Amino acid sequence: MGESAILKTLAGIVGGENALSGAWAEAYSVGGVAPRMVLFPGTVEEVSEIMKAATRDSLSVLPMGSNTKRGLGDAPARADIALSVKRLGRILEHESADLVATAECGMTLAALQEGLGGKGQFLPVDPPHVKEGATLGGIIASNDSGPERLRYGTTRELLIGMKAVRADGTVFNGGAKVVKNVAGYDLPKLFVGSLGTLGILVEATFRLYPVPEYSRTCMAGFGSLEDSQAAVHALLNSDVVMTSLEHLTPALAVAAAERAGIPAKRGRYHLAVRIANVEKAVRDQMEHVRGILKNHGAEASVFEGDVENSFWSGIREFPGGASEEGRAVLKAGVVISEVPSVFKVIEMLREGGVEALASARAGNGMVMIELGGDDHALAGAIDSLRMVAESGGGTLVINDAPPGVKSAAGVWGDLGSAYGLMKRIKSGYDPLDILNPGRLV
Amino acid sequence: MKSDDKSYHTRTPGWKHAFGKKLENILGKGGVVSAGDELIAYDADALTGTRIIPMFVVLPESAAQVSAVLGLCYEEEVPFVPRGAGTGLSGGALPTEEGVVISLSRMNRILEVDIANERVVVEPGVVNINVTKAVSPYGYYYAPDPSSQVVCTIGGNVAENSGGVHCLKYGVTTNHVLGLEVVLPGGEIIETGGKTLDRPGYDLTGLVVGSEGLLGIVTKVVLRIVRKPETVKTFLAAFGRIEDAGAAVSGITARGVIPAGLEIMDNLCIRSVEEAVHAGYPVDAGSILLVELDGPAAGVEAEMPIVEDVLRENNATLIKMARDAKERDLFWKGRKNAFPAMGRVSSHYYVQDGVIPRSRLAEVLGKVEELSREYGLRVANVFHAGDGNLHPLVLYSAANEGEPERAHELAGKILRACVDAGGSITGEHGVGNDKKVYMGEMFAESDLDAMNVVRCSFDPKGLSNPGKVFPTPRTCVEQGAKPYTEHPLQKAGMGEMF
Ligand SMILES: Cc1cc2nc3c(=O)[nH]c(=O)nc-3n(C[C@H](O)[C@H](O)[C@H](O)COP(=O)(O)OP(=O)(O)OC[C@H]3O[C@@H](n4cnc5c(N)ncnc54)[C@H](O)[C@@H]3O)c2cc1C
Q: Is the CB of residue B244 below 6 angstroms from any atom belonging to ligand 1?
């Protein structure tokens, strides 16, 4: 078959109005690599047909939803087809008594929450890019999360079942639609964070939670990093059940506070604590929290409502995604007590003239970092940060950066002793290496 | 490539002797069990219906020894079966004929307690309760609490992805395991995950948890520990009909309350438990429901009246709150001894483990009762009601001709009812040897194929706990990636929408 015949066949699967090519397709680039065509299948069968055709002709496929994570991972080695599941956007089942829902993976998180909200339930993940249309499939495949992870975990904890399409077009299910199930391997876990390299996620079943009735946040600035970190440990080792506990570097604290219209002192590390529960429990615990913060020399102010929501949405979206020249977005994972070591490097970088901001999910050691500078400075800064993260047993990945920085510093860092096994799994699911080739393994 | 169905060559006595010597070279004499009378102790797990005497049992003390043993097994194509405490209920640790059992009981050290970072690192033979004991002086505990927690091992918990009576709120084993060291068939030692989160690459930790020993031997486990709650309140409510208890469970979660534990027992269970441990259960009640609320004091206080309302609305005939920790422990002691207590009312019982959506409870219990009548066998019901995890106990006597088979058949029909209701054939005990025939009820061939890809990536020769989980033997096709060939689709330069 000639090239245009192949393109026509593929377009024929989804219908001409659901296929784009040439210049139109450039908007669906991943890591700066433009696909030759973009397909928007409307059914699982169409996804399967596309994958059969892709396997037949060895066409590489970039699975995506709204492509908000286009900066994540290495640039794909080849990019024939971008396959967006955006048209698979329905809630298929919501059994509110069971706190379980199944939805198609092209559904946006925002739409899902709206659909569940009527019953007072929600999927408790708060990743960035929701306003830009982050879809369930993309959130699962990137294991993206936000500050509320402290209380609820990520989709790793919440995804109980899934349907996916393999590279050769085979459709299969993993997990179940009940919250407890140990039959067979836990394939949903394998697919969480697999970045579209093992199959196309088309349906997901989640465990849900009731929307908490009342929420308050308090924020406080500390005299030193030692004090703020000591307060973190005191909070974690208290009776308080926090929804979020964020540790902000001084410059970011000011920026985030100003954005939300809250006072924040300059030059201080800040902690922000969110508690959500019934009203009385929130009030009691807030008092407890303020007491703990006071013991560490910090006076907390409490805020609520729109101010509170706007503050957390700023934290959630920090540091943003899509790459611009001269910017890098990183995520470090360290043990809780090592967060200050990462912050100290941030300080050092700032003193050395690199723009650097950071915010830590202090209760679980995830540090979100934004750097600004030329390629050379960025790559150097990433090396220093990674060294500190890894020396404490942690990791650092580049969530987004200019291509030159990615290749100089390496996106993933050391994938460890299990890398060979990961490659075997990848080639087991995708022997022709057509799914997001080169992006992760 | 060897597949599961190919029966291993009958080993000659000479070969066997030589193989035993090689094992002794790795483990020392004291690390290899080969005497017939000692091997008997390993012939089954807690599902004792099927027994197989293994060729050897080895007792390694380090990952290096495990690796050497797996290397040897790989060379000689000898299947092996990992074993923790042998409390499994699905025949997961059932030996393979002419295979080696690898008991992890000597690898029982707690390697690291890191309170500040909320992590504990253990060897697989550590008994579940000992993790909590190690951290409780600091106000922490290890959340997954299977009823067998005073004997079962973390390695077994990892393999089965075990649950417990508090997993509705706190999750099961997989939610608390962050990293593993695994010895792969062949002997390669890998680390997955670790003390920190979001490590790049595939979540192999999540894949190995719940893999029932089919992907290699776990030799180290990084656990998450959690802070003890400020307040715990436990209710015991009695109901005439078990359906009412079930409706109360749905009612509680529907009001936005997620209790730490929600457990139901029927009258048959109540009576035998009461006789066995004197937990203070009302023996004339049709069923009882245990509800445990925990968390910040004010939160629990706010939830208590909601729970009481729901219990009353659903015709509770008695609502009792544990006065203190002692009485609470007693309430739970009854529940945690529900299986063994059955020994008092029946010479034999089969523990079933199925899951249904919470909202289908009444319907499925009705079906269980029907089946019980149809088969003329008593079924006692005890279950983790909050997450719809049923444990019907099918009572029988092995002395009666054909009864064990009938009991097993009845238990199987219960599973079918669970699957029909949209549930699962196992919520926590695993598939093992016992339930592999039911896998096809829940999964299509394509689903099983997708699982087989995983198995073949870890264990191409099929040596690790073979013959378990998968309903029919599946072979591994050569997985080498075919080279990428340039396809005819060249840059088309088409700028139009189709
Ligand atoms: C009275 C009673 C109550 C129970 N209550 C519960 C309960 O509430 N919740 C629950 O979930 N279960 C329960 N169980 C089942 C059982 O206790 C669990 O499945 C437990 O996790 C098994 O642990 P074990 O150490 O005994 O493992 P074993 O029975 O020895 O082995 C279980 C499986 O794990 C594999 N395995 C063991 N160690 C390793 C290792 N290091 N690496 C790889 N694979 C390994 C074995 O091959 C086998 O497949 C109960 C059992 C009994 C008898």
A: no
Is the bond leading into B357 cis (omega within 30 degrees of zero)? no
Integer Cα distance of A362 and A247 in angstroms? 6
Q: Could you confirm whether domain B110-228 is CATH 3.30.465.10? A: yes
Comparing CB atoms, the residue among B298, B480, B491 nearest residue A284 is B298
CATH among 3.40.30.10, 3.30.43.10, 1.10.357.140, 3.30.230.10 for A3-84: 3.30.43.10
Q: Could you tell me which CATH number the domain at B2-103 has? A: 3.30.43.10
Model pLDDT for residues A378-425, shown as the tens digit of each residue: 999 999 999 999 999 999 999 999 999 999 999 999 999 999 999 999
Residue A173: half-sphere exposure toward Cβ, Cα within 13 Å: 15
- Cβ–ligand 1 contact at B428 (below 6 Å): yes
Please indicate, yes or no, whether the overall pTM of this predicted structure exceeds 0.80.
yes
Residue B82: name the closest of B24, B32, B128, B42 by CA.
Answer: B42
How far is the alpha carbon of B353 from chain A, nearest alpha carbon, in Å? 10
How many angstroms away from the CA of A344 is the closest CA of chain B? 19
If we measure between CA atoms, which residue out of B319, B345, B302 comes closest to residue B245?
Answer: B319
Q: Which residues contact A426 (CB under 8 A, 6 or more apart)?
A: A197, A198, A433, A441
* Residue B291 phi, psi (nearest 5): -120, 125
Pick from B197, B201, B205: CB nearest A364: B197
Of A163, A131, A164, A165, the closest CA to residue A146 belongs to: A131
Q: CATH for B346-427, among 3.40.140.10, 3.20.10.10, 1.10.645.10, 3.30.70.2740? A: 3.30.70.2740
Residue entry with tokens 């089969």: B350
Looking at the DSSP bridge assignments, the partners of residue A356 are A371
Of A51, A82, A83, nearest in space to A168 by CA:
A51
Interface subset of A 19-38, CB within 8 angstroms of B: 19-24, 36
What's the CA gap between B23 and B33, in Å, rounded? 10
Closest ligand 1 atom number to CA of residue B432: 49
β-strands A214-222, A301-303 pairing: antiparallel
Q: Which structure tokens are listed for B46?
A: 């807690």
Q: Which residues of B touch A417 (CB under 8 A)?
A: 189-191
Q: Do B254 and A97 touch (CB under 8 A)?
A: yes
Model pLDDT, residue A323: 62
Tell me how far apart the alpha carbons of residues A329 and A401 are, in angstroms, rounded to a whole number: 6
Q: CATH number for the A327-418 domain, one of 3.40.50.1820, 3.30.70.240, 3.40.50.20, 3.30.2040.10?
A: 3.30.70.240
pLDDT at B489 over 50: no
The secondary element (H helix, E strand) that includes residue B185 is none
Q: CA-CA distance, B137 to A331, in Å (whole number)? A: 34
Q: Treating both helix axes as pointing N-terminal to C-terminal, what angle do A3-14 and A44-56 enclose, rounded to 10 degrees?
A: 170
Residue A205 has pLDDT above 60, yes or no: yes
Helix, strand, or coil (residue B295): strand
